[in-house]
Specification:
4-stranded antiparallel sheet; rod-shaped; 11 helices
Length: about 325
């Protein structure tokens, strides 16, 4: 047989059997058209969307696109799609099947794909026999992704509000304690402002005014002034920290109530009006090619059998 493929015998064979090969090609083409029709193969339509991440921060060494790809393929989004579209029934998989979930996952993965494009976008592609169904699935995947990220961020914000409120309570207690200490100095030791009072009392003593009362007040400044200054400084620092923490809490509180999306959709899904599968011309082409190859092989054996018979005669 190898000789037929290595020399001009092949062309002689084709030339002698060209009519038969032509009939084989026509029949194979006709069968290819038939078997690739809706009668034997359910046509499928493609819907896809292209989106970029938005309003998210990368975790660890992941890029924003990689993070989006991880989240959008999460198991909970997949199960939400299963429930929302009743995919088991749509794919005609019985829930009584002991391998129901395995088969459903396999069908889903065969019809739904996610990939990162060369431009750092994420492409979602859904293949289905119903073009509108495919488009709706893509829309829902995007919606479920936005909902998932929003919930994750809200949960984190709620947690941070709780932590910062605890911090705020501790800081308020610190401010109250420091304020009580200063209040005691003001009421019992008559210290209102260490710097101003020191200057005034020193000037009063120098001028010989109210020496006894001034001397007593100046003694209080000597005895308790250092503690007053330290406490006053700690109080101002604590109040500054309190206001900063309060601003952070307000930001997190706003985050718990805001509703935003986390994807820029640059290519919206739509219901296709042309099937994506099967590609009929490819099916017909390979049907003809396969039939011709098989026909040539059969003709080679027939030709060799005839030659052997002639030699035997």
């Amino acid at each position: 047989m190898e000789n037929y493929f290595r020399n001009s015998s092949m062309f002689d064979l084709i030339s002698r059997w060209k009519v038969h090969l032509l009939i084989i090609a026509v029949v194979a083409g006709g069968l290819g058209v038939l078997f690739s029709s809706n009668i034997f193969i359910t046509p499928k339509y493609t819907s896809h969307a292209v989106l970029y991440p938005a309003n998210i921060s990368p975790m660890s060494e992941e890029s924003e696109t990689e993070q989006m790809l991880e989240l959008i393929q999460s198991q909970d989004i997949r199960f939400r799609i299963y429930d929302a579209f009743d995919l088991g029934a749509h794919y005609e998989i019985s829930k009584d099947n002991p391998h129901y979930l395995t088969q459903l996952n396999k069908r889903f993965e065969g019809n739904v794909s996610f990939r990162k494009t060369e431009n750092e976008a994420v492409m979602i592609t859904v293949l289905d026999k119903d073009p509108q169904f495919a488009s709706d699935m893509v829309d829902s995947i995007i919606a479920f992704y936005n909902h998932k990220v929003l919930n994750l961020n809200k949960e984190k914000s709620v947690e941070l509000v709780r932590v910062y409120n605890n911090h705020l309570s501790r800081k308020q207690s610190e401010i109250d304690n420091l304020g009580n200490i200063l209040k005691k100095h003001r009421q019992e030791n008559n210290i209102l402002d260490f710097g101003i009072q020191t200057k005034e009392y020193t000037r009063a003593i120098a001028n010989g005014k109210s020496f006894g009362e001034t001397k007593s007040s100046l003694q209080n400044l000597r005895d308790f002034g250092s503690d007053f200054i330290i406490t006053d400084s700690l109080l101002w620092n604590a109040m500054s920290d309190y206001h900063e923490i309060k601003q952070e809490v307000e930001v997190f509180i706003r985050d718990t109530s805001k509703t935003i999306t986390y994807a820029h959709v640059v290519a919206e899904p739509f219901a296709a009006d042309k099937k994506a599968y099967p590609t009929r011309w490819i099916f017909v082409f390979f049907s003809i090619l396969g039939a011709l190859f098989a026909g040539i092989v059969v003709l080679i054996f027939i030709d060799k059998a005839r030659i052997s018979k002639r030699k035997g005669e």
